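Give me the 3D structure for Molybdopterin molybdenumtransferase.
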Amino acid sequence: MLSFDEAQAIFAAAAEPVRETETVWLGLLTGRVLSQDLSAVTDTPAADRSAMDGYAVRCEDCRGDACLPVQQVVYAGTRPQALRPGHAIRIYTGGVVPQGADAVIAQEDAVENYRGVTCSRAPVVGQHIRRQGEDVRRGDLLLPAGTLIEAGHIAALASQGLVQVPVCRLVEVAILTSGDEVAAHDEPRDVYQVHDVNGPMLESLVQSMGAVVRCHRHVRDDERALHNALRELAGDADLVLVTGGASVGQRDLVAVALASAGGELLCRGVNMRPGKPVTVGRLRGKPVVCLPGNPAAAYTTFALLVTPLLRRLQGRSRLFPPVSRVRAALSGARVPPCDAFWRVGEVGYPGGQESLVQVTAQQGAAAVSALGQASGFVRVGPQNASQLQHVSLPYYDLHRWLS
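Predicted structure for Molybdopterin molybdenumtransferase (403 residues):
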């Protein structure tokens, strides 16, 4: 059975990025992935600009108690005149520094009266001036392909006057829930059945990753029905997510149905808890992931194994978010003989560089009541068995792994 790290690498490499691209308006770019490198088309700022409200001057004119007549008032958006020797120009933040000026005096360092302005502090060349191109030079790489666009990136694009931006098309996901025990939402539920928890949960998780759910279907525990559904969905979507039927029981039929449909298994079973039965394969060139039927196990394996695969499909440059370290009190906990991912709630920073987290009470693979309270997972293994009091553990922050 593969280790978690081996399986994570296989999942991430199970597909190639989508090739199709589209052009999207700047205001709708958040969460989209840039499809090509973008270079600056102009200097930013495009001209020397004042960083303060004050006066544009020549430093050589500001000796002693010299009083400089105010030649002009320049606001942001006003075209300045060339500064005449022995004069000052009143200028406001963002205004273009006039030709001939080599400094801006802050208004609090100047005294103005009817005759002009006097500097109370001698200026130095270049002070309070934002130089042309000091942020970005024309031709510089602005954003590389694979960037997941956020508000800060949009600011950089807008500063260049870029309105239509090329991005990768949205990744489409098909969700297939299986199991005789799962009652569809339009069916009456009997005591031997359970509500469909995984379907709505996975739809939300897919959307949080910036992908779209193309369809959501449910089939009974029937190999032929699974066979047909897998073939159809693999033709319609970029990724197929299946829940249930991933283990090795008599009614765990997904692997058999995948093989009969002409697919291949890349990984079956991972030495982790929860989520040991998780499987990934490929059908008609599309990745097919079978998640465990227990909701908490499906949630865990989606976050840690499916999200890198989704990021690769989306064309993102970063597949794996950073893993930090935290301290957790595990006294009395039973450490499993494999990599366990325990849900934790962050409780603060009592001192030092690592935060202290509290392991949630409900860690069962089927427990969902406290699932939304988890801030992340700590990774616990047999090597931690002898040191259970405030041990330092790898921490997978869900805010990073599910976005």
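The mean pLDDT is 88. Let me know if you want a second pass.
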